[in-house]
Amino acid sequence: HIAETIAALTGRLVARAATLGLQAVPDARRAPHYVGLRFPGGVPSDLPQRLATARVYASVRSRGALRVSPHVYNTEADIDRLIGAIAVATKTA
User: Fold this and answer.
1) CA distances in angstroms from 12 to 44, 75, 86, listed in the order given
2) Strands of 59-60's sheet, edge to edge?
3) Which of 3, 9, 65, 84 has its Cα between 20 and 30 A from that of 29?
4) Distance between CA 90 and CA 14 in Å, rounded?
5) What DSSP letter does each residue of 10-77 carry, written as one string?
6) pTM for this prediction
7) Residue 70, class by beta-carbon neighbours within 10 Å (0-12 exposed, 13-18 middle, 19+ buried)?
8) Per-residue model confidence as pLDDT tens digits over 13-35
9) Are the beta carbons of 86 and 52 closer than 8 angstroms?
């Protein structure tokens, strides 16, 4: 049940991220508990710091993806807040 719950959150995250032009590995090739989001042109270098000012925390991995790891206590509203924070942070990047 935990994997199903988190997979639903990562699925929502990938769908919402696509509206910002971000890409993720297809469902069949990714684990349910985390996702890497790729940005056109690469992840802005200061994105983690910009997100942190909104109290949103994610890390950039060596392959140029923003790694997001939802937990069972996260909600759909948290995913929406993350997407909103990414939209704001990249608009001014």
Assistant:
1) 23, 10, 15
2) 35-38, 65-68, 59-60
3) 84
4) 17
5) HHHHHHHHHTTT-B---GGGS-TT-EEEEPTT---TTHHHHHHHTT---EE-TTSEEEE---TT--HH
6) 0.88
7) buried
8) 999 999 999 999 988 888 888 99
9) no
The tokens describing 61, both together, are 């991995």
* pLDDT at 93 > cutoff 60: no
- Lookup: tokens for 10: 């990562």
22: how many CB neighbours lie within 10 A of its CB?
Answer: 22
Instruction: Please list, in sequence order, all residues whose beta carbon lies within 8 angstroms of the beta carbon of residue 17, skipping any fewer than 6 positions away.
Output: 23, 24, 37, 83, 86
The answer for residues whose C-beta is within 8 angstroms of residue 21's C-beta and 6 or more apart is: 39, 40
CA 87/CA 93 separation, integer angstroms: 10
Residue 48 vs residues 4, 56, 62, 72: alpha-carbon distances, Å: 27, 8, 14, 22
